[in-house]
Amino acid sequence: MIGKLYRHFSIYFSAFSAPTAEALFLLVLSMLALEAADSIRFLFRHFLSKITEKSLNAFYYACSYAKADYTRFMGVTAALALKIIPQRLDTQPVFLCVDDTMIEKFGTKFEDVSKLFDHAAHNGSNYLNGHCFVSLMLCVPVWKEQKISYIAVPLGYRMWKKGTAKLDLAASMVRQVMPALRSKKNVIILCDSWYAKQNLIRVTEEYPNLDMICNARYDSVLYDLAPAPTGRRGRPAKHGAKLSIDEDFALSTEKIGDYFVGVRRVLTNLFGGREVIAYVTAAERESGSRRLFFSTVFPTQLSIFCAWQEDDMLCKTESSWMQYIPLFFYRFRWNIEVSYYEQKTFWSLCGYMVRSSKGIEMLANLINIAYCAMKLLPYSDKAFEKYRDCSVQEFRFLLSEKIREQVFIASFVETLETGLKSSPIIESLIQRIFHQEKSSANL
Hints:
Blueprint: H1 2-9, H2 18-34, H3 40-51, H4 56-64, H5 72-83, E1 94-104, E2 114-117, E3 127-144, E4 147-159, H6 166-177, E5 187-191, H7 198-204, E6 210-216, E7 222-223, E8 242-243, E9 260-268, E10 275-282, E11 290-295, H8 325-329, H9 334-346, H10 357-380, H11 392-419, H12 423-440
Parallel strand pairs: 1-5, 5-6
Antiparallel strand pairs: 1-3, 2-3, 3-4, 6-11, 7-8, 7-9, 9-10, 10-11
Helix pairs in contact: 2-3, 2-4, 2-10, 2-11, 4-10, 5-10, 11-12
């Protein structure tokens, strides 16, 4: 079991020095064994000190001061996620979800801690003291009960610091993983209206297979398509008349999913002279507020097996339904909110006690790759195939039992070897361990 985990995680640490790679792997192993990562001291006291002679400072050093670039974790995770895509689904689109999350911290001893605006106001105030992390998630298709289901794999975190822009962080993260995605036909960025700005939009122009589907501000300026040339003297019009999302979008007569939807091709200053699809949604057809979405990818540019989709909104095959497919893709963005909730609630993402910003980012990304392993291993290793329907927390619980059991047996054998010279007892225990290893292959 521990050997399988080492083979999986060693890919992340292959460029690091041997002591650093060993320390980081042991940190990840302890997170899985203890089902928590409250602090490095907690991991050391309850697990690491029992399996290694490394000191507590060695683990602090590996996180905060060692020459280890945690940003490469994103490319490794993306490559591992692409490997689990079945060959028959290789032409299906994949999605990059972009968003940010805040973590509240008390005190000012943490590096780069600052006052942040909290639009959700979880603590009763519109501001909190803490850190803001920009993150990227990759959604890839797999088979699940003869249906196409998308597995959401968070790629990594980058801490926002004063003097930098979250939009620039997001753009650099997308650029970092795109080399791993260059073979995919359609890679689509999903983001909310805050990230639908030029910093990120320019990235879509750098890669021929990269598009964007985004929520947009209600007051975004829209224009009709440019009229046909009239043959008269003068410069042809660059765009048509200005459009209003309240008056110029005819909503559907019936609800498309949960909303009435209006759709048309438009031009907008946000995407320069590029023609895009604009979607307007409303909960009520005659009244109420409306939301605006843009898509740079058209349904005719997509290769999607609608009849096999697990999602109810994507599995319909009527020709009139196809124009709404890009809008339905936006639903995958919600997966990044789910991962925030799970990592904060069950994976101790908020519990870090390291002070340096590098140490904080390293620890957050170690937690993330441990979380991702629980999603990838059931598809990449046949030994874990039976756990595909388990949640990441359930799979971690079952894995932690096996890790602690193997550590206990290994420690027991080592004690016997140093305290006893009875070879028959040692040989019997070795046979027992071999039998358990053989049984664990059927996990």
